Amino acid sequence: MHTLNNTTGSQDPNLDPIPSNPDQFPNRNLNHPQTRRPRGFAATAAAASIVPTESDVHNGNIGGIGGGEGSSGGGERGKGKREREKEKERTKLRERHRRAITSRMLAGLRQYGNFPLPARADMNDVIAALAREAGWSVDADGTTYRQSHQPNHVVQYPTRSIESPLSSSTLKNCAKAALECQQHSVLRIDENLSPVSLDSVVIAENDHPGNGRYSGASPITSVGCLEANQLIQDVHSTEPRNDFTESFYVPVYAMLPVGIIDNFGQLVDPDGVRQELSYMKSLNVDGVVIDCWWGIVEGWNPQKYVWSGYRELFNLIRDFKLKLQVVMAFHEYGGNVSGNVIISLPQWVLEIGKDNPDIFFTDREGRRSFECLNWSIDKERVLHGRTGIEVYFDFMRSFRSEFDDLFVEGLIASVEIGLGASGELKYPSFPERMGWIYPGIGEFQCYDKYSQLNLQKEAKSRGFAFWGKGPENAGQYNSQPHETGFFQERGEYDSYYGRFFLNWYSQLLIGHAENVLSLANLAFEETKIIVKIPAIYWSYKTASHAAELTAGYYNPSNRDGYSPLFETLKKYSVTLKFVCPGPQMSPNEHEEALADPEGLSWQVINAAWDKQLLIGGENAITCFDREGCVRLIDIAKPRNHPDSYHFSFFTYRQPSPLVQGSTCFPDLDYFIKRMHGDVHR
């Protein structure tokens, strides 16, 4: 049995804790060398952790615990056990306190600092983000360095010239006091020290005579400034920070208007197209975007493709030396909006649909959506012996073969794959022809026989066959979340059944993307593939995010619904195109729609960048004033991004031709120059 020792001076100094009260541990070796005094967070943690250790209890090094010669061993073991339990509780409290501090810092960095931190960021992610903000490079393995290393002297780096929202009032007061007390002081970082070490930050000496070394009374290092929630020193430098993001070149593509190719596959107005292309060239756009409609090219007979009108159009574009983005448009156009141009799905597909309407998406009332094919037939041979993905692949392969010369010479820069309603990866859950009006939550589109069989099979595999049906209390197209039993606060969406159904519903979307993209990579080898992601920002301020759920994005407030999809897109090296929200709404409109376009944009864009995806942008078809243009530029080229992330391209689109003078961007020329980095703010 281990004997407790209470002899003076016999204890191991390495096990001797640092006491806050010298009389607390009378047996402490006073000749033990002092360790370096901790600062900041380290000081807070050290003060909270001065408690007896388990080793001290066993070795009898703590006065009052090590029993005397006549003490009972059983009684001492009981005391030691109680001390260990107390120490466990104190450790739990310290850990909770540390996590609370970390959580507040991460929330502040995400909300105010424009730092793209992962959803489950730890302090390594925070330190890396701050190091990059200060001009350092941080590799994935933690290696930290500067690109232009100059080891023989101290290099001055300017701090942020704008006021950071991360800073509390205490930080601002500290910075102000520092500038007042030390007029010539600047923040210097030793070139040979790690950027994450607080000891590497020193205050330079004042230039005027009589000034000593950086005094302990400096406002920057005073105790009042080193609070637990302080992570960085926000000092206003006399040198402005270089905003390198402004100088990045973001290519701008202009979308040609729908209707220049008629329903028989012919170019309608070549002279008008030349005039439009000439005007685009004068604005210095980099290229154009054109939809290749499945309903036109393969409109009348299966596997009979008419490309003649597109060949004539592409030759005109080649004459103006403009790049070309081509959209594989597997959806209808004009079914939801008023206009003269209507492009349906191929006629032979609609004929099949008369006998088998379940090839189309279906809502709870049995109403069919003809915007695109049902994803549940991706692998069902219901299209004259072909499956859905075989039809898509044959169309893409025909295009690649027909225009091989344009791919070889590099005229076709990228191909966008339409994956759902409006060419976006989403369910057709907001159909205007069914009476939907913004900001209605929409309806689930899974009541066709193929989707229901799939759902029932999945429910049986989970052992809950009665889950094999869609929700019955999810409201109507124009319902609001609080009006439904499924989407309301603490509603059925967060029950075991709700989670099962929403996961299945969103996996159908992800599975469709994977099925089509795997074949698109075969058809368009070594060509950039683009997928368009919608901006469903209404109902975003509710817990359920009802509108996103009906569109196929399982993204309630307690779950990240975009990262699983982006993992799939990353597997196929896809470039994401995000439809940027329209002009700023009034506060009343925001409140009524429970909308948060900025919050959604932040989540989607940063989730994509976390997965190392390239992102492009596209404006909604709404008019933008000068302020709206600037907001789009800020989304595409975020200022002071720690990793200098920015969009890889931007697509400008509007309902009518540019030459008609009805541009929705009154400052379109300014917008393009800003995106190209030719002019700054």
From TrEMBL:
<comment type="similarity">
    <text>Belongs to the glycosyl hydrolase 14 family.</text>
</comment>
<dbReference type="Pfam" id="PF05687">
    <property type="entry name" value="BES1_N"/>
</dbReference>
<feature type="compositionally biased region" description="Polar residues">
    <location>
        <begin position="21"/>
        <end position="33"/>
    </location>
</feature>
<feature type="compositionally biased region" description="Polar residues">
    <location>
        <begin position="1"/>
        <end position="13"/>
    </location>
</feature>
<feature type="compositionally biased region" description="Basic and acidic residues">
    <location>
        <begin position="76"/>
        <end position="92"/>
    </location>
</feature>
<dbReference type="InterPro" id="IPR017853">
    <property type="entry name" value="GH"/>
</dbReference>
<keyword id="KW-0119">Carbohydrate metabolism</keyword>
<feature type="compositionally biased region" description="Gly residues">
    <location>
        <begin position="61"/>
        <end position="75"/>
    </location>
</feature>
<feature type="region of interest" description="Disordered">
    <location>
        <begin position="1"/>
        <end position="95"/>
    </location>
</feature>
<keyword id="KW-0378">Hydrolase</keyword>
<dbReference type="InterPro" id="IPR001554">
    <property type="entry name" value="Glyco_hydro_14"/>
</dbReference>
<dbReference type="Pfam" id="PF01373">
    <property type="entry name" value="Glyco_hydro_14"/>
</dbReference>
<keyword id="KW-0326">Glycosidase</keyword>
<feature type="domain" description="BES1/BZR1 plant transcription factor N-terminal">
    <location>
        <begin position="78"/>
        <end position="225"/>
    </location>
</feature>
<protein>
    <recommendedName>
        <fullName>Beta-amylase</fullName>
        <ecNumber>3.2.1.2</ecNumber>
    </recommendedName>
</protein>
<dbReference type="InterPro" id="IPR008540">
    <property type="entry name" value="BES1_N"/>
</dbReference>
<keyword id="KW-0624">Polysaccharide degradation</keyword>
